[in-house]
UniProtKB/TrEMBL annotation:
Native source organism of the sequence: Halorubrum cibi
Name recorded for this polypeptide: Uncharacterized protein
Domain Transcriptional regulator TbsP-like C-terminal: 169-279
Location of the Transcriptional regulator TbsP N-terminal domain: 67-167
């Protein structure tokens, strides 16, 4: 049986599955991160899948994983600042994106701050007050109010969705496997795995890393850019700029590939500084060569 997602509270835990149609209102970054973490612990194959799970999900899609896990659906009404805080890093953002893509968590933007965070269902609701624990931040459940959720129905219906630009790991893997094959998909995920600190603004960020993986596998440029676009990493024009930057730095070269019919295609090929190192060293080589 899958583990029931539960928020750590003083003296125990608060099960999300115990609330009918649960709504979480105005969580701070630490509480929102704890929610994502409890879903990750309950369904790692959905939220933070390893390569084995990614290969299965590429065939089944994320929805069957969520259905098999039996996860409770949660509506989160939070400030843009709270969402932005927990999606700065690529890995953290991809975890929340996985939950949103599978319709496990519905992300809505809260316009006005509330006095406290609260968790409410159709039959009960409570305030969550932060308390300082010895090792980590926890929360205390206060009150039992069955009318709490009803008071936020109008706010929920009027709220704008929060959009996550970072794709889930499942989406990245599936796009590269379909367009470029399993080996490219595997390396793409591995190179995007340095941890939660990799941000979209990193000079050697997710887009550059994904394109470099294709070059190391001598992928056709058009196919590679389509894979990056399908993965939700950026537009084709974005990868045109990345390609030029890598060529100018002497890290990538191009080859024309003749075809029996139609115009020749162009293959991107990693040059010597980039083609030899193991995948774990590629980001360091990029930084050294690009002077970042």
């Amino acid at each position: 049986m899958p583990r029931d997602p539960a928020i750590p509270i003083a003296g125990g835990s608060l099960s999300l599955g115990a609330f009918a149609d649960p709504l979480l209102v105005d969580p701070g970054p630490s509480l929102l991160s704890a929610v994502v973490e409890t879903y990750r612990e309950a369904a790692p194959d959905l939220v933070d899948p390893d390569l084995h799970a990614l290969r299965s999900a590429a065939s089944d899609g994320p929805e069957p994983i969520a259905a098999r896990a039996g996860l409770p659906s949660l509506t989160v009404l939070a400030s843009s600042a709270a969402f932005d805080s927990v999606t700065k890093g690529f890995r953290d953002a991809s975890r929340l994106a996985a939950l949103a893509t599978a319709d496990v968590i519905d992300l809505l933007t809260l316009a006005d701050p509330q006095p406290n965070a609260l968790l409410a269902g159709d039959e009960t609701g409570c305030v969550l007050v932060g308390v300082a624990g010895e090792e980590d931040a926890r929360w205390r459940r206060v009150g039992d109010d069955p009318t709490l959720r009803d008071r936020y129905e109008r706010t929920v219906s009027d709220a704008d969705p929060y959009r996550i630009d970072t794709p889930s790991r499942c989406r990245v893997y599936a796009a590269f496997e379909e367009r470029c094959g399993r080996a490219v998909a595997t390396d793409a995920v591995r190179l995007l795995d340095p941890g939660p600190d990799l941000s979209a603004t990193d000079p050697v960020g997710p887009r550059t890393r994904a394109y470099v993986v294709g070059a190391r596998h001598r992928t056709h440029d058009r196919t590679l850019r389509r894979a990056c676009e399908d993965a939700g990493l950026g537009s084709p024009s974005t990868f045109t700029r990345i390609k030029r930057r890598l060529i100018d730095a002497g890290l990538v070269e191009t080859e024309r590939v003749a075809r029996p019919v139609g115009r020749p295609r162009e293959r991107v090929v990693a040059a010597d500084p980039l083609s030899g190192p193991p995948i774990e060293r590629v980001a360091d080589v990029l930084r050294e060569s690009l002077g970042e």
